[in-house]
Amino acid sequence: MPLRIESCPSQFQHQLNERWTQWRESAGEDVAGNTDTLLEDVSLQRAVARSFVGSDFFYRQCCRSPELLPELLQNDDLGLASIDIEQFGDDESLDRELRKLRNRVTAEVIYRDFADQWDIARVCQRLTELAETCIQAALAWHYRQLVNRYGEPRDREGNTQSLIVLGMGKLGARELNLSSDIDLIFAYPEPGETSGENSVDNQKFFQRLGQRLIKSLDAITADGFVFRVDMRLRPYGDSGPLVSHFAALEDYYQTQGREWERYAMVKARPVAGDVNAAAELMELLRPFTYRRYIDFSAIDALREMKTLIQRQVRARGLGDNVKLGRGGIREVEFIVQAFQLIRGGREPALRERNLLQLLPLLESGGHLEPGIAQKLADAYQLLRRVEHALQAERDQQTQTLPAEEERRQKLAFALSRDSWEQLWGELTEARAVIEREFDAVIAPPEDIAPPSAAEEWEALWASCDSEPAASEALRTLEFAGVEPAHEALDLLAELRVSPVVATLPSASRERLDQFMPLLLAAAAREQQPLLALTRVLPLVRAVLRRSAYLVLINENPPVLKQLLRLCAASPWIAERLARHPILLDELLDPRRLLAPAKASDISDELRRELLRVDPQDLEVQMEALRHFKQSQSLRIAAQEVSGALPLMKVSDSLTWLAEAILQQSLQLAWTQLEEKHGAPAGASREDMRFAIIAYGKLGGLELGHGSDLDLVFVHDADPMQYTGGEASIDNLRFYTRLAQRLIHILQTRTLSGPLYEVDTRLRPSGNSGLLVTSLAAFEKYQRENAWTWEHQALVRARPVAGSRRLCGAFEQLRLELLCQPQDEKKLREEVVVMRDKMRAHLDKSNDQSFDLKQGRGGIVDIEFMVQYAALAWAHKAPSIVRYTDNIRILESLRDAGLMPAHQAGHLIDAYKAYRSEGHRLALQQLPGVVSGDQFTAERKTVQTNWRQLLG
Q1: Where is this region: Adenylyl transferase (predicted)?
Q2: CA nearest neighbour of 633 among 687, 573, 673
Q3: Structural domain that includes position 723
Q4: What is the pLDDT at residue 492?
Q5: 506 and 529 within one domain
Q6: What is the pTM of this model?
């Protein structure tokens, strides 16, 4: 039966008929007849036609093994069975079986691809599984043969050693091509020797094992080959030892590893050998591959590699190479791996090796514009399909589009296109997408931006420490508006001649010399150039030994502008950045930096951050919490100084940040104690029977930069019962330890400092009371023993973390306590006495200055009036104590008719004005004291209201 289908171009019909006839002769009547029946399905006819025309290799394999074709037609997947090495009597039988398996699997993936049954990801996955199966079988066979001869390789303590095979490149990423080389690195844990009579050292044993493994895979026999093996990615390349022990590998990469080797190591994955030893090796290599900071220095290495490749493309005329040419496969890989190398140390999710799985992660993480990941994925998959079709034709490693018209039409037909012109149009469009995104990510800044104004500052930086050039330098600075010019020149000269600069490695010095003219040019455009320069230079000094941060700024011109603007606006921001340069990453995306976040956004982002770290490593979790707090605080401060957030929203954001951190810190503390002691009787992670109550600024949603947290801890579990773990303790002890552990997480000074300072003195009986109080005991204390000032504090109290049920119970109790009728005269006297005591001890005002917080007519006077009103009148109008912040309480007093609208309005205006100035001074790292002639109207208004309300 001839195989004819309408979609087959006429010029290939004759070849198709010849090949079909040849296959039928090889198959015999029974197999051919069975296949004819299967091919009544027209879609299967098309699949066979494309495969026979598009792949000489597939056609030859079908003729050598005729039963293969009907098996493919009858099954969706022929599978990949493991290889039993027990069946082999010698190396030749192993090698023959490996090649037979390779030919069958390769033929199947060609057919599935051309039949549109498998996508490119599945094709690559099957080829990767084939490579792993063959490597593991050959390794196991040759290891056993060598052990029979030399004994087992052991370390000095007698532990058996295993050869670890690292798959690099496409094998490591599970993206193997049809005709790919496999890039391998061989390693073993420790030096030693074998245990047999003919003992050899481990190095020699594993070298022979590696050589035999390569021969079984790489040698060409009558059955072909399995995989070409490339070992040039190992340390020192072809001149280095074939196998290295772990310590030697670690030493090499830490002392001599080059940037291109980091690029290669991104895809490294153990494909054979002892699992535990392989995990140990990967952990040793991780610090080399992924830096803990944002590492833009990787881009330069990628650019150099791309430049070399482009030179080869031009020299060898490879413009039609779908891998190496512009807009080719390699450029997609460079885009993805640039982000991996830059950010993989901070974002473990980006250590994923597979490109198609990485692209959506990059987009969801904000590193690619919305929609770009899918466009790149579609373009990449088209190029990979074309690459596979090119290699399927003759089982050759090629990525170059054919020049001959007939081969072009064959390629288009094999890939289900109507014509070469259609395929070429799709390829052109796909490569344009890749090229545009590659230039946006990898191209040097000068290629995509206008020439920098920094060139005129290069000479000044180069000669700022030279006495003869001083007059010219001063004129340049004065002309640019950097005044006093001599102070600026002294700052620059001091930096240039400093010992730390003099001893910098050449690469770091080059980065500094590239950065400083950019800094001077940008500073000259600021309103106060010297101020901006003065505040940024401490950061420069801080990162000189970690000059990748300078590369980050050099690579991202908007970062420098943002850096100067923020540092000029706030020394608090400048100090944070100098102390924690890792926060520079926050300046990379101005939209994200200046976009205010909701409470849920902050909470969700922190949850995602903690999911990225080891849940068993408390130290790493604590660092993650601190970095999150620093980065969010920086964002909030940036939004404040830029005007993106008004005062009230700044406090809201800082409050939401503290709440999110408290919630996650409580979860961490609970997890640790529960693992050790079990959960308290009647409690669970969902209902801990424990709550954190915020007082003061956190309770009143008025947190500022650097504010402490006033916290009280309550529980409602039975104190006489016990936890359910092996190391059981009573419930009360559990909750006390829970609070202590929480405070430890918050206050411990790690490399990044503490999260928050915690004050627990507002708990019942203060420092002499229990750290954790039952809700019943809290109620009894408040009703029978609490001082008036403790009731005042309760006005600003609210639950912020823990059991929702218990939080609700506390809120109800708070309302009941605050709504108790009061003796207004007695209450007024006690509030006034307490205020006078505070002012006597804390007020920093004098004839020339005014203390915003404690001064007469200041913030605390407003707070005391609000608290008095709430306590005195809540029994009449419970709505006035529903909220805990002063402004909404004042609004509630107005709405309830308990305070005239103009009076409430004046107090709200004064309160906002004071707090706004207090925030500004905090960001300037100045005390909350202003000139005595400021806020005179506000102070007068507050004092008038004080007299009216409290006498």
Answers
A1: 453-951
A2: 573
A3: 639-818
A4: 94
A5: yes
A6: 0.65
